[in-house]
Amino acid sequence: xxxxxxxxxxxxxxxxxxxxxxxxxxxxxxxxxxxxxxxxxxxxxxxxxxxxxxxxxxxxxxxxxxxxxxxxxxxxxxxxxxxxxxxxxxxxxxxxxxxxxxxx
Length: 104
Fold this sequence. Notes:
The protein has 104 residues and is mainly alpha-helical. The protein has helices at 2-30, 36-72, 74-83, 98-103.
């Protein structure tokens, strides 16, 4: 009987380290706020946001150039005011065609 208990205890002593390490690995991977799965998901989110920032930077540069052109060239500013915002001078009339309305 003593030999059986010694064998069981020896087996348990070897397995307890494996169980503790396994529990530790499972808790790191699947449990808590800072798990591997959360880190991977957050890295994807960060990557997507960095791509968005790059797109917005290029859009910003394009709009900045348009603003510079509009400030320097009164004709282009007048063109935008007439075409986009339907503005007119006091002594003018505006005519719209159905084809133009369908494009908008």
